[in-house]
Write a structure and sequence with these properties.
There is one protein chain. The protein is of the alpha/beta class and 283 residues long. 52% of the residues lie in helices and 11% in strands. The protein is built from 13 helices and 6 strands. The chain has a 6-stranded mixed beta sheet, sandwiched between helices. A hairpin with an 8-residue loop joins strand 4 and strand 5. Helix 2 crosses helix 3. The longest helix has 17 residues.
Length: 283
């Protein structure tokens, strides 16, 4: 198949998983390429996500790699053949690729879990809140770039509000709920937005109170996206160079452990809802 122009996180992940399967057998790339009647360059392009791969080739490779996990194989086939054009593609060339990759990961997730410490989660932000965050974080951003960022962020909510909503659980630190990224009116509207999402059943929200003893998770912010099979789970964390997409099992295990630790410090959902109600009245 011809090389793909856009290296999305999903294409990169497919290639990475095929490479992992090959490396687990000890087979060289040129040996795997020969099994497909291809050369090592083509194999490298497939494993790096530069070139696409057909369903038949995915199944042939899995057979040669002695992979017997049918659920994983079918998930990889779906990744290779799904030609769905998501809403985020409208922003290609307008926003940085990481914006699109994040939306794509969320769209294909079986479930979403998130920990946020300093800001309200992007999936729950109002347009005014998102605008205030972007304006502060990127000073001087022109309206032509600011507007699509805000629009993209608020449209991401379709993943938890659509016809087949993805289960979403978020742990939010009290600090993130109290800090005023703009003014009192914006903060009040944001808290009401969170309460509305809770009442609509779109999100399970748990608050980490500031008076919680033994909480050292100031750097715990992360998102964990469940894959079609556990092996295809994805972690997202902010890094100095931007959002990092994590797929290595040892790192994913660390994120799962981190989420459980933070979860122990959070109030239960009902108490958290009442907590947010009280904060709203205080504003």
């Amino acid at each position: 198949m011809p090389p793909k122009r856009h290296l999305t996180a999903r294409r990169l992940r497919l290639g990475a998983e095929l490479r992992k399967l090959r490396e687990a057998t000890g087979m060289k790339a040129r040996e795997a390429a020969a099994l497909l009647g291809a050369d090592s360059v083509q194999m490298s392009q497939i494993e790096s996500g530069v070139a696409g791969v057909s369903a038949e080739r995915v199944r042939r490779l899995a057979a040669h790699y002695a992979c017997t996990d049918e659920a994983l194989i079918e998930a990889l086939v779906t990744m290779a053949t799904d030609r769905t054009r998501g809403w985020w593609e409208e922003y290609r060339g307008v926003l940085p690729p990481v914006f699109l990759d994040t939306a794509e990961v969320e769209h294909h997730a079986a479930f979403l879990r998130e920990v946020v410490i300093t800001h309200v989660p992007g999936l729950l932000q109002t347009p005014d809140y998102a605008r205030a965050v972007y304006t502060y974080m990127v000073p001087g951003l022109p309206e032509t770039e600011l507007a699509p960022r805000v629009e993209h962020r608020t449209t991401r909510r379709t993943v938890i509000e659509g016809e087949n909503p993805t289960p979403y659980e978020t742990l939010i630190h009290e600090f993130a709920l109290r800090i005023r990224v703009a003014d009192r009116q914006t903060s009040r509207a944001q808290l009401r937005q969170i309460l509305d999402q809770i009442e609509q059943g779109h999100a399970t929200v748990r608050v980490i109170p500031t008076d919680q003893d033994g909480f050292a998770g100031a750097g715990a912010s992360m998102m964990y996206a469940g894959g079609a099979v556990p092996r295809l789970d994805t972690g997202l964390r902010d890094a100095p160079t931007g959002t990092a997409f994590i797929d290595a099992e040892p790192q994913l295990a660390q994120l799962r452990t981190l989420f459980r630790k933070v979860e122990k410090a959070a109030l239960d959902p009902v108490t958290s809802r009442d907590f947010i109600h009280r904060l709203t009245k205080e504003l």
